Amino acid sequence: MTHSYTIETFALCKEYGSTVAVKGLSLGVRQGEIFGFLGPNGAGKTTSIKMLLGLTAPTSGSAKLFNQPLGSDENRARVGFLPEHFRFPTWLTGQEFLQFSGQLCKIKRATLEKNMACWLDRVGLSEFQHAQLRTYSKGMLQRIGLAQALVHDPQLVFLDEPTSGLDPVGRRMVRDIMADLREQGKTVFLNSHLLSEVEIICDRVAFIKHGEVLRIETMSELNQGAARVQIQAQGCNAEVLAGLSRRCQVLAAQDSHLTLSVADLETLPEINRYLLENGVRVYSITPEKISLEDLFLQIVGTDGGL
Ligand SMILES: Nc1ncnc2c1ncn2[C@@H]1O[C@H](COP(=O)(O)OP(=O)(O)OP(=O)(O)O)[C@@H](O)[C@H]1O
């Protein structure tokens, strides 16, 4: 199956003096996916986004957005960006701010008017559109920042910690917006430390550390893949345990409690059948999915990135 890549990077590097912020980043982000970009503090996530946006030049390597070199004028209007630390023009009202952002992308006035009303409503700020941004709360600024990233109807949006400062309702709103964008065939590049949210919404995730991609995972495969399994059963003798070990990894076996590690949840029916055929009385089989947080710590380590 061929994929059309919205983002492709080829050994992208960025050095600041002796600091290597990004070290040979190579990845492809497909059109219509929500791609999570995960890594510890200082891993090079923001620097990578800045290079992709043409805000800072790579030291070496290259990248393409929509099959065009970085920084092309044409791409600028196709891309939206919500930075982590936005310096908002606080003297503007919410509406003026969206108008200004939309005008920078040179979209037609009538389209901009329509999009502004739509996004102000979607982020729950219609009522506050005529108030200056200086009067907005942290969460309201985050909401208007998101509307700003989307008001020109971009094909690709970079969201850097979009839910920081948002209440649970706001977080759900951001997730729903991302899901809608995907539905419309748009691409979302999400930089977030909130792994419980990433887990729910992303299609694929890249783990980076010290400016390098350590691993790329497909979330659906992760959800169906390896798991730890707790089994309550009676009658498991040494012979049965030896047979089990040929089918999966037996992590612990105590009295009537077994802990197994399986490479694929698909092996569970076979394990159940094997136990029953050998006279074991099975009371429960409970798979425990490996959380994205566990995987993050496993791949990136617990030492942090700094
Ligand atoms: N303008 C700069 N000048 C010098 N060093 C920089 C600059 N910007 C980033 N760095 C360094 O590059 C490395 C990567 O920083 P970056 O901000 O990309 O990390 P990050 O993954 O976004 O981190 P966080 O999760 O903390 O936001 C860090 O070591 C940082 O100190």
Automatic annotation (TrEMBL):
Keywords attached to this Swiss-Prot or TrEMBL record, sorted alphabetically, are: ATP-binding, Nucleotide-binding, Transport
Query: Which PROSITE patterns did the record assign?
Result: ABC_TRANSPORTER_1 (PS00211), ABC_TRANSPORTER_2 (PS50893)
Q: Which InterPro entries match?
A: AAA+_ATPase, ABC_transporter-like_ATP-bd, ABC_transporter-like_CS, DrrA1/2-like_C, P-loop_NTPase
Highest taxon in the source lineage = Bacteria
Which residue numbers delimit the ABC transporter domain? 7-235
The UniProt GO MF terms for this protein read: ATP binding; ATP hydrolysis activity
Q: Which Gene3D superfamilies does the entry link to?
A: P-loop containing nucleotide triphosphate hydrolases
Q: Which family does it belong to?
A: Belongs to the ABC transporter superfamily.
Q: What is this protein called?
A: ABC transporter domain-containing protein
Organism this protein belongs to: Ornatilinea apprima
